[in-house]
Specification:
The structure holds 2 protein chains of 2 kinds.
Chain A (H helix, E strand, L loop, with lengths): L10 H32 L7 H31 L7 H23 L23 H32 L2 H4 L2 H5 L9 H32 L7 H35 L7 H16 L13 H30 L8 H23 L2 H7 L4 H25 L10 H26 L14 H27 L1 H6 L2
Chain B lengths: L1 H26 L6 H30 L15 E8 L2 E4 L3 E3 L3 E8 L4 E6 L5 E7 L5 E6 L4 E7 L11 E7 L11
Parallel strand pairs in B: 1-4, 3-9
Antiparallel strand pairs in B: 1-2, 4-7, 5-6, 5-8, 8-9
The chains are: A mainly alpha, B alpha+beta.
Amino acid sequence: MSAPSVTPIDAGGRRAIVTYLTSFLLVLVLMALLGVLMRAVQGGDVPLAPRLFYEVMTAHGISMVGIAGLGGAAVMWYYLRRYVELSSGVLWFNLVCFLLGAVLLLAAIFLGGFATGWTFLYPLPVHSNGQWGNGAAAMYLGGLLLIGVGFLVFYIDAGRAILGRYGLSRALGWPQLFGRSTEEAPPTTVVASTVVTVVNGLALLAGATILVLELVAALSPGFSVDPLIAKNLTYFFGHVFINASIYMSVVGLYEILARETKRPWKSSRPFLIAWNATLVMVLAVYPHHVLMDFVMPRWMLIMGQVLSYTSGFPVLLATAYGTLTIIHRSGIRWTLVSSLLVLSTFAWAAGVIPAILDATIVVNQVMHNTLWVPGHFHFYLVIGQVAMVFAFALDLTRGASPAPDSGADRLAFWIYALGGLGLSLVFLYSGHLGIPRRFAVHEQAWMPYARVGALFGVLAVVGMLWFALRFFRRMGTALRGS
Amino acid sequence: MPQQTAWLVTVILVAILAATFLRIVSTASSSAEYAPIAKRATSWRPRLFWLLALFTVVVLAFTLRRLPYSRGAGGAPAQVVRITGSQWAWQLSHDTVQSGQPVEFQVTSNDVNHGFGIYDAKMRLLVQVQAMPKYTNMLRYTFAAPGRYTIRCLEYCGMVHHEMRTELIVSGPAAAVTRGGQ
């Protein structure tokens, strides 16, 4: 197979991508500020009623998960569009669903008082003990369902385009893996996007199922759902969705680093093995979220631990190892974009380590629902997935002859990296001390850690703000293209 | 304590990873032909895979030996405490147990999901299990020392979640078990 032809993105597609990134950056900065606020409240420095704290916590969580998906979708669409015919209309449809859904979510939270945490774990949404009404619950669940429908249509369009051009087996490199094909496998973007399309399509169906069931329960008080099945559906959806957000964003890493180093990042045999293994493992690993539900079938819980360990292999051996190989003595010019990409790979690989440890059953019994958990996911999201989207956004604004980075750019990078790293490590350290997550009020002895966490959070926000302003200043270039 | 081990392992492995990245980044600006680099990287990857696989197998074998899911194993426990969570209080069938003897906590919920977590006087989390409506999770634990222990909710359950706690008294082996409780 000859090298794939690359189709340039049209003006309508560019406008949509820039609108995605604008939404991503605005929500990110705002919600990161709310994150800092929560740590300051836990540190005892800012008074905030617990009721409002939990509303803020719910808004922070669902918004961050949502924009992780939105940012990842922008990266994936932009590069996948080069190889297959994607619909700009569907891209806009997803964004409209997202924004309308977000309005419903925020209204449910801040007007209706809905505060279950982003995971809407049944039966809390319909059993509030007088904290919010079923109308607010229905509004939240309906808003989330609308966002899910938008994403589902997005993946249906991606699936249609990939199947039309490659077919499923070719898009996943099966002829190269399991046959004797000597053809070159599809580009890395196509392989990764195919995996995401399959796994997130299934995750969204599971998410829609539990959302509809909970909606019915909210509207018909006599109807109930089995709480264990509800928990499994919720965590399956949540786990796959957030991982798929990283997988979509990593597409930009493959494409941009290959260009910056002038070295090809091809779908080699190890790459194909890694992504095909990921396809299976990301669907089956979610029981590590229910390790403390002893009534679960034991084999599922053991599988959750074993697959959590093996899930680290593709990250380390394909993406992190591939990144180090491609930049090694490449003569790469260090810019904000390339620096953010390498930082993001490090953070993804490093954040996986405490995540795997948390999935160890004997460790989970003393770490589950402590601050160890936000410790690992902030690690691979704040300076991992988010850094990938920042790199993509800033790359779009560079144009044909990019100006060199300023001293302020370099300073902002290090402030952001230090802030994100410190924020995550303080969470992890607090978790190992047994400090619970999702507590509006902390014991006196726990407050110093929250204060230090808030300070690192401020640093991370300063870096984010700088990158966002840099993007908005040069947005015209992103709209025109280079 | 598993917490200390997890923290130390995390710090060491993250530091090794950071050092590796910094080392490669420091040489990235210089140029060399890619083919020999790619060839060398390709030859090293399987070795790294087998090293990781060996490490994984050893850790899995070690950590999966003793799981907290042994329902009924080791015979009937001498002490049984029924725990029921509800927004936002714990109900205990007994508020006192003896140290040195296994206790079986039968944990459930009246309303939403809660997390049953036991903290010692130094605020260290000793053990936990989920409290779920319609299901009863069996947790066995042997207290090593007498004292006052705090039960906290570890699964977010609404606006007063952070205040959902009670006390469990662990007496010396000779003391009588008190019925009733909160």
